[in-house]
Amino acid sequence: MKWGRLQRMIVIVSVMFIFLFAGCGDTNQSGSKAEAEFANTYSDTDTWLVYWYICGADLESESEAATDDLKELMQVKLPSNVKVLIETGGARSWHTPGISANAIGRYLYDSEGLHTLDQLPDADMGEAATVTDFLRFGRDNYPADHRVVVFWDHGGGSAAGLCLDERTGNMLSLDELREGISQAYPADEKQPPFELIGFDACLMATVDVMQELHGLGHYMTASEELEPGNGWNYTGWVGALARNPGMNGAGLGKNICDTYLSDCEKYGTDGQATLSVVDISRLPELRSAYEAFGTEALRAARKAPEQFFSSLARQADTAENYGGNTRDQGYTNMVDLSSLAAKARGLLPSSSEKLVAAIDNAVLYRVNGPYRQESHGLSAYYSYDGDEEGLQAYVSLQGASMPFKCLYYYLVYGEMPQEAEPYLNGQTPAEPAQSGTSPAIPKPQGAQKIFSVQALEDTEVDVDADGYAFVRLTPEQTDRLAAVHCQLAYYSTRDDIILYLGSDADIDADWDKGLFKDNFQGRWPMLDGHPVYIEVTHEGDGYNLYSVPVRLNGVECNLQVVYNYHEEKYRILGARKGLETNGIANRQLIHLKAGDQITTLHYAMTMSGSDEEFTQVDMETFTIGEHPEVKDEELGDGNYGYYFEFIDPLNESALSKLVKYDIKNGEITTTVGEELNESSAQPSGSIAATITGGDVE
Fold first, then answer.
1. Is 630 helix (H, G, I), strand (E, B) or coil?
2. Residue 29: which residues within 8 A CB-CB, separation 6 or more?
3. How far apart are CA 353 and CA 495, in angstroms?
4. Other beta carbons within 10 Å of 143
5. Would 518 disulfide with which of 247, 266, 469, 502, CB 3.0-4.6 Å?
6. SS percent in the chain: helix, strand, coil, step 5
7. How far is it, in rounded angstroms, from Cα 1 to Cα 524?
8. Is 44 in contact with 244 (CB distance < 8 Å)?
9. How far is CA 339 from CA 456, 475, 547, in A?
10. Exposed e or buried b for every residue in 452-475, given b needs 16+ CB within 10 A?
C-alpha cells in the first residue's frame, strides 16, 4: 500500500498498523560552497582553545554517551598550540572515573594528556550563569588566538532550548544561551569572539539559534534533525584540528560534518542524519529575507485567514520537518525553512525565492542521510500542533522574528496582536531586528479562534459507479482545512470491539474541485505478519517516513520506518523514545536485533459499552528474528469502517459519515449510510487472529 502524508494523525484513531517501511538509500546528499570558504586562513602556529560544555543528563547516566565521547577525544594527540577545556555536570551519575555527579568538574586536555583542574561546588548546567562562569575561566586562564565552544547534551529546537540538567530539570532557552556566552565574551559583529559555536545536540540548526549567535561566532555547526546517540566523532574532528591548526571555522565545521556522517554510517544511524555549517555573518541578509517572508505571510493572513493558514499548513505538511511531529511522538514544531519557502512559492511569491537564496548563501556546507534529502541546513519554528504553551515559549524569545511571532499568535489565538501593526501597514524597520529587540507578546484574554472544523462532523458520503466512496466539499469548507485523511477501523460484534487500524492520506484528493475519494484496496502494512499502528512524519518525493508506537523489550518507544517508492519496500531504521513533556527528544536510536520482544500498541473500544474515547491497549507480543520486515498484506475477511477525516491548521479534526467495507473471499463491498453495530458478520483472517490472540478486554 502506498502511503501519503499522514502527519497529523488523530490520537483517537490510532491503532493497529505498522508502517515499518524499508526505504533504501545509501547515498548521502551534501552541499558546499567554493573551496575558498574552507581554505586555511590562519597560521599553523596559531593557538586554539576548544570549550566543551558537557551537560551529561540521562545520555551519560543511562547510556555512557559522554564517557564514550571523552574516550574518543583521548585518542587524539594534540600539538602544544591546541587545548580542550572541559566542564562536566548535569547528570545523576558518571561512568568516567573521577567525574562526580555532585560537583562541576573542570579538566584540560592538551599535548600532555588529561588534567583535572578543579572540582567546583555543584551548579545547574541549565542556567546561563554556569555557562558564563565556565567561559570566563577559560578566558582568564587560557588565552588563545581562536576559540571554539561546543554544547553537548539534549536539544529541543527554537522553543525548547538545550542542555537539560537531569538533576534540576532546567534547560537553557535560546535567550539564556546568548546571555551565558555574551556575559563572558561581549558580542562584536566585526570581530566575533568565537571562530565556531557548535551543538552536539538535537534540533539546534535553526534560524533562531543563528540569530542569537550573531556577533558571538563566525560559524555555527548544528543538526536540524534529532542526532543519534553516537553524536559527533571527537577523534575525527579534533584530530583534524590537531593536524591542521591553520584551518578556519568553516573548515573545522566541514570536518565535524564529514566525520559525523562517516560515524553514523559506521553505526547504521545515518538514515535521517543532518549536520550543517552556517556563516553567522550572513544573518542580516537572511534575517531580512526571513522577515519579508513573514511580513508577506502576515498580510496575506489578515486578508483571508482561513484560506491562507489552510494553504500554508498544506505546504508545511509536505515540507521536511524534524523530531516526529505526530500526536503519538510529540511535536518539536521544527520545519526545514528552505523546504517550506520553496513549497510556498505560489502562496508567497514576492519573498519565497529570496528566502531560499539567502538560506543557500548562509549555509556553507551540509551532510544529509539518505532519508533527509530535502534538508537545506536551517530549520524554523512552525506551529504544527497549535499548542499554546509551545507558542508562548516561542513568542517569549527576544531573538525570534516579530512577523512570525505575530503570524502564529494570530493562527493559534485568532487575534491579530498590536505588535503586527507596523508590518501590516508598511512601516517595517529598514534594518531587521537584532537580538534583544523583539519583545514577548502577552497571551490574549478571551480571543476567538479562526477555525471551527466541527461543522464538517458527519459529512455525507456517497459511492461512485466504480465502488469508491467519496465526499464533495464546497470551496468555503476546503478553505478551512489543512488536510483530508482517512481512518480505518476493524469491527466485530462477535468480539465486541472496534479496533482502529490507523489514519492515512492515501486518498485521491482534488482540492480544486473539493472532491476526495477513498483508495482502499483491502491491504495494510504488517510487521512480520502482525498489524501495528502507524503515523506518517514526512512525505518526500522518493520516500515517506513513519513512526510506529510499540513496546520494545517492555519499554514504550516508536519504531522509525521509511518507505522507498523506487524500491517499493519498507525499511526499519530503529526505535526511539518519544518527546518528553519539556520538548526534549531521546537521542538513542535503538537497532532491532534477533530475540527482541515487540508488543504492538493500538487503540480500541467496545461496541456495547458506554466508552466515548478509544484507549491504548497492548495487543500482541512476539519475538522477532534476524530480519524483521514490514510488508503490505491482505487484511482478511471481515468488516471494516472507514471515515474521511477533516483536519484544520490547529490540528483539530472532524469525521465524515461511516463507509463500510465488507470483505469476503477477497471481494470488497462498499456501502454508506449504516452504523457499525448493524453488522453481525463473523470475521476471519489476520485481523481476527490478532484480536483472538491479543490482550484486548
1. strand
2. 366, 367, 368, 372, 373, 375
3. 56
4. 10
5. 469
6. 25, 30, 45
7. 6
8. yes
9. 31, 27, 21
10. ebeebeebebebeeeebbbbebee
Range 455-460 contact pairs with CB under 8 angstroms and sequence separation of 24 or more: 455/654, 456/480, 456/646, 456/654, 456/656, 457/654, 457/655, 458/655, 458/656, 458/657, 459/644, 459/646, 459/654, 459/656, 459/657, 460/656, 460/657
What is the rounded CA–CA span in Å between residue 586 and residue 57?
11
555, with CB counted inside 10 A (0-12, 13-18, 19+), is: exposed
Residue 2 backbone dihedrals phi, psi, to 5 degrees? -90, 125
Encoded amino acid at 2, one letter: K
Copy the grid coordinates of residue 344.
Answer: 510556498
Are the CB atoms for 504 and 481 separated by under 8 Å?
no
**Residue type at position 549:** P
How open is the CA angle 542-545-549, to the nearest 5 degrees?
A: 160
Ranges assigned E (strand) in 111-145: 113-121
Exposure string of 33-54, with b = 16+ CB inside 10 Å and e = fewer, is eeeebbeeebeeeebbbbbbbb
DSSP reduced 3-state for 478: helix
**Residue 454: DSSP 8-state:** G
Count of residues in the chain: 697
Q: Are 369 and 261 in contact (CB under 8 A)?
A: yes
Could you report how far apart the first and last alpha carbons of the chain are, in Å?
30
551532510: which residue's cell?
Answer: 367
pLDDT at 27: 38
Q: What is the pLDDT of residue 21?
A: 29
Q: What is the pLDDT of residues 184-201, one digit of tens each?
A: 999 999 999 999 999 999
Query: β-strands 597-605, 630-634: how paired?
Result: unpaired
Write down the pLDDT at residue 11.
28
- Write the pLDDT tens digit of every residue in 369-410: 999 989 999 999 999 998 899 999 999 999 999 999 999 999
Q: How far apart are alpha carbons 541 and 570 in whole angstroms?
A: 15
Closest CA to 557 of 270, 226, 321: 226
Residue ranges of the chain with per-residue pLDDT less than 50: 1-29, 430-436, 678-683, 694-697
Using the structure block, give the residue that is written with the C-alpha cell 540538567.
Answer: 165
At 420, list the grid cell: 503586527
> What pLDDT is stored for residue 690 in this prediction?
62
